[in-house]
Design goal:
By secondary structure, the chain is mainly β. The protein contains no helices and eleven strands. 30% of the residues are buried.
Length: 116
Amino acid sequence: QVQLVESGGGLVQPGGSLRLSCAASGSLFTINTMGWYRQAPGKQRELVASMTNGGFTHYADSVKGRFTISRDGAKNTVYLQMNSLNRDDTAVYYCNYWDVIQSDFWGRGTQVTVSS
């Protein structure tokens, strides 16, 4: 089992920045992918960014150039640096962990609201 705890969400003005953190604990496999998904009201959950243990990343087209995902292996933590935020980024952001044996685990989510 894997436990994921997100932090860093909140209210930010358009054009502002926010950094999300997700600390993982439990039975973590070395080979894994961690990432961030988001879900806005009335919309489907979508992948925002992900990163493998080896450092390969993937970003949704809508956030490329604005968001940066990173990982700290020693802390078992994944981060999402979000810059140039706009109202379309408003959503609940969920941390995700995946490995080939255990499949997916999810955090409880953290609210990001972009509003003036």
